[in-house]
Design goal:
The chain is α/β, with parallel strands linked by helices. It has one domain: Rossmann fold (3-Layer(aba) Sandwich). It has an 8-stranded mixed sheet, sandwiched between helices. Helix 6 links the parallel strand 5 and strand 6. Helix 7 crosses helix 10 and helix 9 runs antiparallel to helix 10. The longest helix has 19 residues. The chain is globular, with a radius of gyration of 19 Å. The structure holds S-adenosylmethionine (SAM). The site of S-adenosylmethionine has 21 residues, from helix 1. The site of S-adenosylmethionine (SAM) has 21 residues, from helix 1.
Length: 275
Amino acid sequence: MTDAPVRHNAAVTNRSLLSGSAYKSGQDLSARQSLYKWQSPRYDLPGLVTEQLREIRGTVVDVGCGNGKFINRLRQDRPDLRLLGLDISAGILGEVPGPVAVADAARLPLRDAGTNAVLALHMLYHVEDIPAAVAELGRVLAEGGTVVASTNSDHDKSELDDLWQRASGDVLGRLGRDRGPSRISLSARFSLEKAPSVLGAAFSAVRVVELPGTIAVTDPAPVVAHMASYRAWADQYEVPFDETIQRAERIVSQQIEEQGRFEITCLGGLLICRR
Ligand SMILES: C[S@@+](CC[C@H](N)C(=O)[O-])C[C@H]1O[C@@H](n2cnc3c(N)ncnc32)[C@H](O)[C@@H]1O
């Protein structure tokens, strides 16, 4: 496992970039989610979240619900629950069966203590004031309720960080510049290592369920699609984005030719919070 440097960039929390580009539709999010098809062990993430809500009755709100992956599973497996999807992107909500509403995690349009479970899955790192959003999750949560958050480790997919640096370095080298800059990390502000103490400010019990795995591909396409899904942040890099992706594809192809596969080490996790 390599310790790739983590770069924070204000564009990770830029609301107009998030709603107008990165999550205007579910297309790039789906490309990132698809890479996990090649992970082993394979986790049924919507199933694991549904399992955490087995004791919950009443209302479940999915904050930053994205393309509705979790709402869809809950609708199928738990028809007894009242579900609501919230997101800052009106565009992506068009792909989610209702009821849904445009809303910001930092100002939830929900009454105090009226929601039996709240999901905040792979989204708190996009919020500017994370402690304020966590306090909001606590404010709306009913007595005896559960919050399920999720994020990735600081070390998650470090091979992709190395790949980006090698590829961007090669591109910059051709332009007469030094080694390439590191890739933007979306989850660094609320990584699996940082999340327990941030959530601990609002919840007395925070349990971490780690989900380690290894992705192995024998075709560069899913890796390239994953890297290209960061297109919304392309102008945050000091390197030509498309050229860097093309160079990365050649590096991955070469490794597959030589070693038969390209491997990526993953570590994500769920955080189960109760008051
Ligand atoms: C990485 S996606 C995760 C989507 C979904 N929860 C999942 O795990 O598949 C992050 C989502 O959070 C939304 N989001 C970002 N900042 C938000 C905020 N301040 N309030 C509500 N939603 C936000 C984005 O629009 C996007 O749909």
